[in-house]
């Protein structure tokens, strides 16, 4: 995150206007140029702006915070381990390193959406979605993808299947090519389920088959069975009883 974006991130986080932050330091229009990356602030200006925001001059390297988020994110891929997920969340939630740099803080906030959905705290999930939606411009590609995927999860659990399907398909469109196969398998599986709920049978089968191939390669028995069941149900819905039985 460059200097201007970083200043804007913390200004928005503190719910300060351009005028409030610029007051006594520089003209609001100059701050706007800095936030847009059109110009760099002078050292004295930067020091004054950072002091007003209560942040260091430069972002901190935060390897420990990144590992904490990475491990939490990996655990969230296995929602059946709810007790372990809740235990880890309790252990790390108040850790100061989750908030010591912008990228880690944003990543953790996005993962909290998934956590609240898994634990059934939909009010907190909704609040977190509304909070994070304000910061979409600061997300990297993977964070932007995950935000939309988790938004799809939220719509699905509320039985808003049309919205879930649209959001999942958008997540697929913006997904980075560097995502691991297990992540893509989970997305394809989610698209298949929501498409099935919308009676988009061809689409449901297409994505269930894509998910199945990944789960067979990764050898995830539970999901292999679930994909076969989903495909069978879809085939039965359109009258292909022989295929459904197979």
CATH class term of the largest domain: Mainly Alpha
Percentage beta strand = under 5%
CATH architecture of the largest domain: Alpha Horseshoe
Q: How many E-type strands?
A: 0
Per CATH, the superfamily of the largest domain is Tetratricopeptide repeat domain
CATH level 3 topology of the largest domain: Serine Threonine Protein Phosphatase 5, Tetratricopeptide repeat
Low-confidence stretches: none
Q: Secondary-structure element sequence?
A: HHHHHHHHHHHHHH
- Please compute the radius of gyration using only Cα atoms: 22 Å
Number of domains: 3
Helix- and strand-based class? mainly alpha
Main sheet overview: none
Distance between the termini: 52 Å
Overall outline: elongated
Number of helices: 14
What share of the residues lie within helices? over 70%
Mean pLDDT value: 92
């Amino acid at each position: 995150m460059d200097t201007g974006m970083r200043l804007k991130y913390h200004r928005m986080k503190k719910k300060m206007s351009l005028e409030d932050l610029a007051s006594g330091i520089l003209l609001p229009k100059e701050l706007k140029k800095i936030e847009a990356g059109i110009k760099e602030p002078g050292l004295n200006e930067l020091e004054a702006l950072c002091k007003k925001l209560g942040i260091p001059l430069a972002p901190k390297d935060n390897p420990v915070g990144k590992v904490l988020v990475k491990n939490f994110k990996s655990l969230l891929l296995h929602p059946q381990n709810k007790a372990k997920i809740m235990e880890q969340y309790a252990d790390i939630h108040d850790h100061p390193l989750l908030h010591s740099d912008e990228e880690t803080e944003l990543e953790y906030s996005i993962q909290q959406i998934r956590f609240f959905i898994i634990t059934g705290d939909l009010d907190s999930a909704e609040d977190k979605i509304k909070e994070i939606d304000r910061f979409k411009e600061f997300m990297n590609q993977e964070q932007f993808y995950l935000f939309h995927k988790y938004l799809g999860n939220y719509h699905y659990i509320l039985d808003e299947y049309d919205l879930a399907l649209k959001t999942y398909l958008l997540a697929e469109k913006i997904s980075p090519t560097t995502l691991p196969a297990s992540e893509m398998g989970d997305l394809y599986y989610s698209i298949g389920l929501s498409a099935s709920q919308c009676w988009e049978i061809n689409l449901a089968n297409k994505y269930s088959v894509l998910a199945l191939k990944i789960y067979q390669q990764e050898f995830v028995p539970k999901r292999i069975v679930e994909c076969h069941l989903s495909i069978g149900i879809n085939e039965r819905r359109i009258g292909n009883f022989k295929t459904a039985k197979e």
